[in-house]
Design brief:
Layout (H helix, E strand, L loop, with lengths): L1 H12 L2 H19 L5 H27 L9 H26 L4 H24 L2
Helix pairs in contact: 3-5, 4-5
Length: 131
């Protein structure tokens, strides 16, 4: 188990997504604390990226699946259980957590959509890392 964790940790450290996530989180914390505003060009660029992110993610997921060397033959109950766990259980858990925290309106909707994007990205990341 320890060897598996070390291997995964080394592969994650080689991935640029981890560094970007850490830098983005640190920037968010600093800008919220000291009320910094991003430059206009950066704001518009992030807005453009956020508008195209879901379409790009779904396209990338389809490409990832199409490039698989072999198909995994699953029985129908296993497939339905996996789909249910990914696309029903995860958003339901996020909805419950959002209600506990008190998210409402647009913030609540964004939180639920982010869970679905993370599900797609987790598949792509595990595929890239070879798991």
């Amino acid at each position: 188990m320890k060897l598996i964790l070390i291997t995964v940790w080394k592969k994650l450290l080689r991935n640029s997504i981890i560094y970007v996530t850490i830098i983005g989180t640190v920037w968010s914390l600093i800008s919220f604390r000291f009320n910094f505003q991003r430059p206009l060009i950066i704001r518009e660029m992030v807005e453009l990226i956020s508008q195209t992110a879901i379409g790009t993610t779904v396209f990338s997921l389809g490409l990832c699946m199409a490039l698989q060397p072999k198909m995994v033959d699953l029985k129908i109950p296993t497939t339905l259980a996996t789909i249910g766990a990914r696309f029903l259980l995860a958003p339901t858990t996020m909805i419950a957590a959002s209600m506990v925290v008190g998210l409402k309106g647009v913030t609540f909707e964004i939180a639920v959509i982010q869970v679905l994007k993370m599900l797609l990205k987790s598949y792509q990341l595990s595929n890239r890392l070879g798991y």
